[in-house]
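Before the break, one more example. Copy the sequence into your notebook; we will annotate it together after we see the structure.
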Amino acid sequence: MKIFLHVCLISLSSAIPAFADHGYDTAYKGYVGAAYRYLATTYNCRAVIGRSHYENARVAAENSLRLSGVPTDIALRSVEKMLDKIRTDEKTKARLSFAQCAAKAASTQAELQAWERKLQSSRDHPVRF
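Here is what the structure looks like once it is written out:
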């Protein structure tokens, strides 16, 4: 998963605006990583906690990629590639209970929201040279 995420982030790094500083870059990478973890959790738990959580996570993942300026079609294809990786990984993981799924979905969603706030903060307060 880390290798796939790194490849995705590296390929998208050229789309990050030129004015981005290290804080923004770190926050953006954290945001995309959190979106991936939230998507993976809700995809793997969709039968237990409901498909709507998965659909919300998918939109969040798409939006995290579009935020960098990536065209919508590329963002959608990138999320499909993420899902291909998640589906492959799903075969080797044990199923989680409802309580485990609910807790993990809530924690990954909270992580995504925290990274979103960090990203917003880094945009609102850029480092000046």
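Confidence is low (pLDDT under 50) at residues 14-20. The first helix runs from residue 2 to 13. Try to locate both features in your own notes.
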